[in-house]
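For the sake of transparency, this paper describes our internal protein records without simplification. Because each token names a local backbone shape, the row as a whole describes the fold. One such record is reproduced below, unchanged from the form in which we store it:
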Amino acid sequence: MSDNKFPSPFEIETPPGAEGWQKMYNWYHLFGEERRELDENRFWFADRLHHPDVMHPYDEIQCECWWQALGAFNTRIFAMPPAHGVDQRILNGRLFITAVAAPAEDIPARAEEFAGRASHYYENWESIYIGWKAKVTAKLHEIRAIEFAPLPNLEPVETVEQHVGHSAGFRMVRDFERLVTTMYETYQYHFEMLNIGYAAYLNFFQLCKSAFPGIGDQSIAQMVGGLQVDLYRPDDELRRLAKEAERLGIAETVLDGSMNVEQLFERLSDDPNGKAWVADWNATSDPWFVINTDPGHPGGYHTYDTWADIPDIPMVSVREYLRRFRGGQNIDRDTAGVLRERDRITAEYRDLMSTEDHAAFDQAVALARLVFRYIEEHVLYIEHWMWATFWRKSKQLARTMAAMGYFDEAEDMFFLRRGEVTEAIYDLVVGWSVGTAPRGPGYWRPIIEERKGIFEALKAWEPPPALGPPPEEVNEPLTVMLWGINSDLVREWGQNDEGDGKTLRGVGASTGVVEGRARVLKHVSEMSSVQSGEILVCPATSPAWAPIFTRIAATVSDVGGIMSHTAIVCREYGIPAVVGTGNAVATITTGQRLRVDGNSGVVTLLD
């Protein structure tokens, strides 16, 4: 592939009507002449896994959190031998990223340092993970306790009598900073174990590639699958609620699709068993339905609510499971079968090795299985529970400021950058404190209106999958395992661009070959439209999509690697998957016949 295969970021034009979009984002996040020589010679790919859509200015905080944290743990804390961090740039409202290689001359010393530091974590993984859960849960409780309410006309007398010593206005300023800082701190914890977890899996992956030439990526992944992890708990709870509806004799009422959830719960509350089922649902909802509905990697945008916010989404799945259960089907996941297959494949490959290599193989597979639980479960704690709470509190603040007349509507706040929101809160609080009008309502209104127009113009732009010269080698663990980006895939992207329009290539993430009709979905709220046996085509999936995997025949995604959520879940459910195709959603339309080859990573358009 030539160095000119993908356009330079400095050649990309601004979409009509989006002039001045750069003012919506922080200056350090943009391509600029000051580092043009550096950035023009690096390979950037669109991060559709975390940020598949145009980013609101306020939501820039999400990618800032992981930008700094991932880099620090790779580069400064664990000294990952081949790679530093993952750099970011925003272009036309979309996030592009690139892996930063460690200097070749530093790798031997970094490898020695990494061995000692990572070993400490590997040897104490279980106890560290228990402490990790406690730390993250404590931070979750901290931001759940924050409340933003309109400032009172007069402080309650208790402020005087209890010698509080500060005002509600001060607390609004303080609590917003606390909200942001706590989210940043939690994202440090996010990468405390994640990078070295992927490194352990990558080590096992490379050992297998070396020992067994020609082994498929899926076979390697199957050797570490089949574990019971909390990430599957939300879907398991939907199945349990379906069974409970049948046991309590309320199945016919639950299956009445003419009612939304609010109406259904009102109807059920007239019956003791129905009332018990509703209470069960509500008790289950927190935390197991605090599941973000982002189209791909969860927690990336404030615009997506949770199952708990939109209970009609999980109810679709409860009704589906209930219909199947009543029809005599086993609706439980076949975890035991996945474990049997895992052990069979592991034993067969182990038998191919010489006896003296068994110890190294056993150690590598055991470590990969050990870290796998965290790799999956951390998503629940951080991307769902923490980010859902952060966005909920941010929306509460926005509603409060709108109620005080600072914004015309709550959504306006999200068209300001995080630092600008800090300024706006201070301006509001000063006006309240002094008893005068803040400047903000008139100052921000034209800025927000301009940005709303720019935002709509940016949504019409379809970003290329990549920018700049292709890499010779990609070896940053998250880039390989999570995003699935490597030189081979980049070449496949090029073939997709040059091909006859009948073939897409990506990463074969779950074995098997299936033909069927496509169902293109961009959001989990469209899940009810999927017919049994269709092939799901989507940007990516998150745990919010879990119930769909019992209905579909295969999955094709725009983004993801062998250890992405889509790949892992498809292997657990035993359905073929091709991930990381780059542009399946834009290429395929609902109803087209496809052949999905999860062995080779090829998707063929048959129509």
In short: The chain has a mean pLDDT of 90. The longest helix spans residues 358-403. The two ends are 29 Å apart (CA to CA).
